[in-house]
C-alpha cells in the first residue's frame, strides 16, 4: 500500500508594492503548507518567476511601472496554466481583461478565509505518493 | 458675516474637483489600509489559537497591528488634509518628492487612459511652501492633462533648477489643454473657468506669492508645456 509523504509546500509568488501590506499579508499567507516569496514590483516578480518554481501567483493590480494586469499577461505567456489571484482595492472585471483560465479576483479588504478559499480552489492540496 | 475672499473660494473649488475626480483612488488607498488592519487581526487570532508557546508570534502580531493602525491613522489624517481647504503653514519641502508622490497617486488613472508620465528630478529641489496646497496644484494639473490629452500620450515631468528657482515643467508632444492668458484668469474667475484654468490661476497665484511665476498660455511656444518657477529654499 502506498505511503503518503508530507504534503509538498505550495510555492506562492506574492506581489504588492505597499511595504506594510506586503509584510503583513506575507505573514498571513505563509504557513506550514505554503512558502511565500514576496516582491514589490512586476519586474522583480517576472525575474523571480523565471528563475524558480511557483505553484501560484498572488498579485496586487495597481503596481508601479508594470501593472498587475500586465504582469499576469506575461506570466500567462510563460506558463499558461499558472493559477493567479488578482487582488485590488478597485472593482475588478476580469471578463474584460481576458486573462485566461485559472485566474481569480478578490477585492480588498478581504478576509483570510476568502483568500484561503480561492487558493484551495486553484491549488487543491497535493500529496506525493511514495511507492 | 465676513466675506469669503475669491482665492479661498477658488481653492475650495479646486479641492472639491480633485476629491471628486480621484474618489476611486482615495477609496482604493483606504481599502489597502483596511486590508492591513484585517490581516493584523487575523494574525492576532491565529497566534492566540496556536497551542503551546506562542508568545513570540503574538508579540510580532501585536507589533504589526500597531503599525497598521498607525499607518491607517496617518492615511486618514492626510486624506482630510488633502481633500479639504484648510489653513496650513509653509514648511520646507522637496518638490521632486511631491511630484513623485502625485505621479504614484495618479498612475492607475493615467494608465487607464494609456498616458505615460516620465518623471525626472534633481535631488535637492527644496522650497518653502504649504505642503497640501502644493500637492493640490500639481495633482490638479496632472489631472487635467490626463483628462484632456489623447490616449497614448507621453508626458515628461521634470523638476530642475533655473537660476534661483526650482522649475517644474510638464511637457508633451501633444498640445496641452487649452488655456487663456493666466494673467487674465483671476478677472475671468468672476465669470467661469475651466477646471484647467482654475488650477492654472491658483498655481500662478501660489507661485507669485513667493516671487515665482508660471508660464503657460495660448502662445505658440507654450502650446506643449507648462512651467512653474518657485524660489528655492536657502540650503
What would you note in describing this structure?
The complex is a heterodimer of chains A (131) and B (235). The longest helix of chain A has 11 residues, at 19-29. Chain A has a five-stranded parallel β-sheet with strand order 3-2-4-5-6, with helices on both faces. A two-stranded antiparallel sheet of chain A has the order 1-7. Chain A has 131 residues and is α/β, with parallel strands linked by helices. Chain A has helices at residues 19-29, 42-51, 68-78, 94-97, 112-122, and strands at residues 3-4, 10-15, 34-39, 56-60, 84-88, 103-107, 129-130. Mean pLDDT of chain A is 86; it is low at 127-131. The radius of gyration of chain A is 15 Å and the shape is globular. Helices cover 36% and strands 24% of the residues of chain A. Chain A has a single domain (10-124), classed as 3-Layer(aba) Sandwich (Rossmann fold), CATH 3.40.50. Chain A is built from five helices and seven strands. In chain A, α2 (42-51) runs parallel beside α3. By secondary structure, chain B is an alpha+beta fold. Chain B folds into two domains: 6-83; 91-231, Heat Shock Protein 90. Helix content of chain B is 55%, strand content 17%. Chain B has helices at residues 6-21, 23-49, 55-83, 95-112, 131-148, 182-188, 195-208; strands at 91-94, 116-121, 126-129, 154-162, 165-172, 213-215, 225-231. Chain B has a five-stranded mixed β-sheet with strand order 2-4-5-7-6. Chain B has a two-stranded antiparallel sheet with strand order 1-3. In chain B, β4 (154-162) and β5 form a beta hairpin. The longest helix of chain B has 29 residues, at 55-83. The model of chain B has no long low-confidence stretch (mean pLDDT 90). Chains A and B meet through α1 of A and α2, α3 and α4 of B.
Shape of chain A: globular
**Helix fraction of chain B?**
40-55%
Topology, number of strands of chain B: 7
Order of helices and strands of chain B: HHHEHEEHEEHHEE
Quaternary organisation of the protein chains: heterodimer
- Counting H and I runs of at least 4 residues, what is the number of helices of chain B? 7
Report the largest inter-chain contact: A-B, 20 and 26 residues
- Ranges of chain B with pLDDT <50 over ≥5 residues? none
The rounded distance between the terminal residues' Cα atoms of chain A is: 8 Å
Cα-atom radius of gyration of chain B: 21 Å
**CATH superfamily (homologous) name of the largest domain in chain B:** Histidine kinase-like ATPase, C-terminal domain
Fourth-tier CATH superfamily name of chain A: Response regulator
Distance between the termini of chain B: 43 Å
What is the highest CATH level, the class of chain A?
Alpha Beta
Broad CATH class of the largest domain in chain B = Alpha Beta
- Following the backbone from N to C, one meets helices and strands of chain A in this order, namely EEHEHEHEHEHE
- Count of DSSP helices of chain A? 5
CATH architecture of chain A: 3-Layer(aba) Sandwich
Structural class of chain A: alpha/beta
Determine the fraction of residues in helical runs of chain A and give it as a percent range.
25-40%
Amino acid at each position: 500500500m502506498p505511503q503518503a509523504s508530507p504534503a509538498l509546500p505550495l510555492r506562492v509568488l506574492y506581489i504588492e508594492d505597499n511595504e506594510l501590506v506586503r509584510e503583513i499579508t506575507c505573514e498571513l499567507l505563509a504557513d506550514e503548507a505554503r512558502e511565500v516569496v514576496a516582491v514589490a514590483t512586476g519586474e522583480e516578480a517576472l525575474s523571480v518567476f523565471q528563475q524558480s518554481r511557483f505553484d501560484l501567483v498572488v498579485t496586487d493590480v495597481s503596481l508601479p511601472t508594470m501593472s498587475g494586469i500586465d504582469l499576469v499577461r506575461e506570466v500567462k505567456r510563460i506558463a499558461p496554466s499558472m493559477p493567479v489571484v488578482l487582488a485590488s482595492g478597485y472593482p475588478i472585471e476580469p471578463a474584460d481583461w481576458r486573462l485566461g483560465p485559472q485566474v481569480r479576483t478578490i477585492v480588498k479588504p478581504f478576509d483570510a478565509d476568502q483568500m484561503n478559499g480561492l487558493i484551495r480552489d486553484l491549488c487543491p492540496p497535493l500529496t506525493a505518493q511514495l511507492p | 458675516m465676513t466675506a469669503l475672499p475669491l482665492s479661498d473660494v477658488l481653492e475650495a473649488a479646486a479641492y472639491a474637483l480633485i476629491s471628486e475626480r480621484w474618489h476611486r483612488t482615495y477609496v482604493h488607498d483606504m481599502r489597502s489600509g483596511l486590508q492591513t488592519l484585517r490581516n493584523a487581526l487575523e494574525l492576532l487570532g491565529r497566534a492566540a489559537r496556536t497551542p503551546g508557546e506562542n508568545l513570540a508570534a503574538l508579540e510580532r502580531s501585536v507589533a504589526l497591528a500597531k503599525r497598521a493602525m498607525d499607518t491607517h491613522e496617518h492615511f486618514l489624517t492626510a486624506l482630510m488634509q488633502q481633500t479639504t481647504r484648510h489653513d496650513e503653514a509653509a514648511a520646507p519641502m522637496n518638490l521632486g518628492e511631491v511630484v513623485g508622490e502625485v505621479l504614484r497617486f495618479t498612475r492607475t488613472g493615467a494608465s487607464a487612459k494609456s498616458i505615460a508620465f516620465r518623471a525626472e528630478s534633481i535631488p535637492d529641489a527644496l522650497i518653502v511652501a504649504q505642503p497640501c496646497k502644493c500637492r493640490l496644484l500639481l495633482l490638479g494639473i496632472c489631472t487635467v492633462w490626463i483628462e484632456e490629452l489623447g490616449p497614448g500620450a507621453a508626458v515628461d515631468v521634470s523638476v530642475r533648477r533655473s537660476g534661483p528657482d526650482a522649475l517644474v515643467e510638464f511637457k508633451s508632444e501633444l498640445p496641452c489643454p487649452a488655456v487663456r492668458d493666466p494673467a487674465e484668469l483671476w478677472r475671468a474667475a468672476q465669470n467661469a473657468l475651466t477646471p484647467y484654468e482654475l488650477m492654472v490661476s491658483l498655481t500662478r497665484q501660489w507661485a507669485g506669492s513667493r516671487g515665482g511665476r508660471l508660464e503657460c498660455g495660448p502662445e505658440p511656444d507654450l502650446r506643449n508645456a507648462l512651467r512653474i518657477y518657485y524660489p528655492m529654499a536657502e540650503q
